[in-house]
Specification:
The protein is an alpha+beta fold and 194 residues long. It is built from 5 helices and 3 strands. Strand 1 and strand 2 form a beta hairpin. The longest helix has 15 residues. The radius of gyration is 19 Å and the shape is globular.
Length: 194
C-alpha cells in the first residue's frame, strides 16, 4: 500500500466460496482519519465496464441488441463519422473514438446522452476497427444503449438483472448526490502527495 500510495483497502478471503476472513486496512478518508472497514464502500471506476458489457450481452440474449449492429440503430442522431461503429467495436475499444468526451465532468451530474453528444463533432482517432484505443466514451454509449433498449435507466436494469440476482446488495452506480454510508473518498497521487 505504501509503495503504490494506496491509503486503504478492504480484503475478503474466500475458501470454497465461503468467507473465511474480512478486514479493512489503512484509511478510507484522509481528512477525517476514518479507517477502512470490511464494509467500506469503494468507487470501482473502470471495473464497472465489465458490468456494462454483461448488460449488453444480456440484451443480446434477450434479442434486443445485436453485436454487429451499427451504433446509429440505437442512437439515430449519431454523426455520419460513426456509421461504421458497431456495438462490438464499442465493447472491444476498437471504434476509433476518443478516450473522453469533451463534455464529461466527473464532478457534475450529467446524462449519458449529454456526454455522448458533446463528442459528436470530434473526429475519430483512427478508422473504426483498425486499432485498440481505450475509450470511456464508448462505454457511455453502451450505457445509453442499455437504457434505450431495456426501457429503463441502466442502473435499474443492473439492479434487476445483475446485482440482485447475484446478492450484490451494496453495489450501485457512482453518485455525487446520494449519501452512502461508509464510502471511501477517492484520491489520486501526483507530485509526491495525494
Amino acid at each position: 500500500m505504501r509503495k503504490q500510495h494506496i491509503p486503504g483497502v478492504a480484503l475478503t478471503i474466500l475458501r470454497d466460496g465461503k468467507i473465511i476472513h474480512q478486514a479493512g486496512f489503512g484509511v478510507a478518508d484522509l481528512e477525517q482519519d476514518l479507517p477502512v472497514r470490511a464494509d467500506t464502500v469503494f468507487n470501482i471506476g473502470s471495473l464497472s465496464k465489465q458490468f456494462l458489457a454483461e448488460g449488453i450481452l444480456l440484451l443480446v440474449q434477450d434479442g434486443k441488441v445485436a453485436l454487429d449492429a451499427p451504433v446509429s440503430l440505437y442512437l439515430p442522431d449519431a454523426p455520419a463519422s460513426w456509421s461504421a461503429i458497431t456495438i462490438r467495436h464499442l465493447l472491444s475499444h476498437t471504434a476509433g473514438l476518443i478516450r473522453e468526451a469533451p463534455g464529461f465532468d466527473g464532478d457534475k451530474v450529467q446524462s449519458d446522452i449529454q456526454v455522448i453528444r458533446s463528442a459528436y463533432g470530434v473526429p475519430l482517432n483512427a478508422p473504426t476497427g483498425t486499432r485498440f484505443e481505450y475509450s470511456n466514451l464508448g462505454y457511455f454509449i453502451l450505457a445509453e444503449v442499455i437504457s434505450r433498449t431495456s426501457g429503463k435507466p441502466w442502473p435499474a436494469f443492473f439492479a434487476e438483472r445483475i446485482f440482485r440476482p447475484l446478492g450484490m446488495n451494496a453495489t450501485r452506480p457512482t453518485s455525487l448526490t446520494d449519501l452512502i454510508p461508509h464510502r471511501a473518498r477517492g484520491y489520486s497521487w501526483g507530485r509526491g502527495a495525494s
